[in-house]
């Protein structure tokens, strides 16, 4: 399956693994890249040196292209931006802000720059700043989210920019991929689907939550603070929502979330931790290898798109 995204990234398939905090580490990134997609290390709130170690670890495991996802609101964003340039990482994706001030430095290191956006205006701005491609992420995604759904966002951004587009949010199988391509995307990014893989180094409890999730199990907290986050419902989301309704201050709400994702992913506390996952979790019923996920995804999407073409 060749598109402008596979050409840009030098991958076999136009499939990217989301840069999820605490989840997207060297082993998962390398496994996705080895399977023909683009694996990402999620820098999240980690310091630059941790990211450097992860980058070097991936390079030991695979010679295939991979990337780093930088969360721009991290206090270490400047350090991490420099580290990826020094290590000449093939690809950088960046979300939760604008990476404008780093783009020249990355380009000078021959790095492909792919911002994650949730609006048409931001997509246009990133194209003007020299981005190589865009990830359009709908509100169905896990973690930090925007307002527009993937189905609404992707075609509008596809019409607004000339650079290639990657769809994210609510995609876990070949049907989702085929739909994204019909809307104008040339690649897909998946997060939640890759949590439920053999190679994901997350606590068993976290994987089980995703495998058992139903369609109605995700909740968005933090709308009142302007930082909405999607996770699976549990004691933590219940408590947060209650405090939010009572008009708790940003500081009070922040106390609940500090370290909450690590609690779930690393320690397996899926009651009080933040079990970040997309709305698509209800569709994921089996733990596969990264290779199986990508091959099933691409083969089903290919079949569906060929079928759609035969009706023209």
Features:
alpha/beta, three-stranded antiparallel beta sheet, 312 residues, single chain, eight-stranded parallel beta sheet, 11 strands
Notes on the protein architecture:
- Strands 1-9-8-6-5-4-3-2 form an 8-stranded parallel β-sheet.
- The protein is α/β, with parallel strands linked by helices and 312 residues long.
- Strand 5, helix 6 and strand 6 (134-137) form a beta-alpha-beta unit.
- The protein is globular, with a radius of gyration of 18 Å.
- The chain is 44% helix and 15% strand.
Q: SSE string, helix = H, strand = E?
A: HEHEHEHEHEHEEHEHEHHEEHHHH
Largest sheet: 8 strands, parallel
What is the percentage of strand-forming residues?
Answer: 5-15%
Strand arrangement, major sheet: 1-9-8-6-5-4-3-2
The helicity comes to 40-55%
Mean of residue pLDDT?
95
Low-pLDDT segments: none
Shape: globular
Structural class, from helix and strand content? alpha/beta
Total of helices: 14
What integer value in Å does the Rg equal? 18 Å
Instruction: Report, as a whole number of angstroms, the end-to-end distance.
Output: 20 Å
What is the multimeric organization of the chains shown? single chain
> How many strand elements?
11
């Amino acid at each position: 399956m060749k598109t402008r995204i596979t050409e840009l990234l030098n991958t076999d398939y136009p499939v990217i693994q989301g840069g999820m905090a605490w989840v997207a580490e060297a082993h998962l990134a390398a496994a996705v890249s080895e399977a023909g997609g683009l694996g990402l290390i999620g820098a999240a709130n980690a310091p630059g040196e941790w990211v450097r170690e992860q980058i070097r670890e991936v390079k030991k495991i695979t010679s295939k292209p991979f990337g780093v996802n930088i969360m721009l609101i991290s206090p270490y964003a400047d350090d991490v931006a420099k580290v990826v340039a020094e290590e000449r990482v093939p690809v950088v994706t960046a979300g939760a802000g604008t990476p404008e001030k780093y783009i020249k430095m990355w380009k000078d290191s021959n790095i492909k720059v792919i911002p994650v956006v949730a609006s048409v205006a931001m997509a246009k701005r990133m194209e003007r700043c020299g981005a190589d491609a865009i990830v359009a992420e709908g509100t169905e995604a896990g973690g930090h989210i925007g307002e527009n759904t993937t189905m609404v966002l992707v075609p509008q951004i596809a019409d607004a920019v000339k650079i290639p587009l990657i769809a994210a949010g609510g995609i876990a199988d070949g049907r989702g991929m085929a739909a994204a391509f019909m809307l104008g995307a040339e690649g897909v990014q998946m997060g939640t689907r890759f949590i439920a893989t053999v190679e994901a180094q997350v606590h068993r409890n976290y994987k089980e939550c995703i495998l058992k999730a139903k369609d109605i199990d995700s909740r968005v907290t933090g709308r009142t603070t302007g930082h909405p986050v999607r996770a699976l419902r549990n004691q933590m989301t219940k408590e947060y929502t209650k405090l939010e309704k009572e008009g708790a201050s940003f500081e009070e709400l922040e106390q609940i979330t500090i370290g909450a994702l690590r609690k779930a992913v690393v320690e397996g506390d899926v009651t009080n931790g933040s079990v970040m996952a997309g709305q698509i979790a209800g569709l994921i019923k089996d733990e596969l290898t990264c290779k199986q996920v990508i091959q099933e995804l691409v083969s089903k999407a290919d079949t569906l798109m060929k079928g759609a073409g035969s009706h023209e």
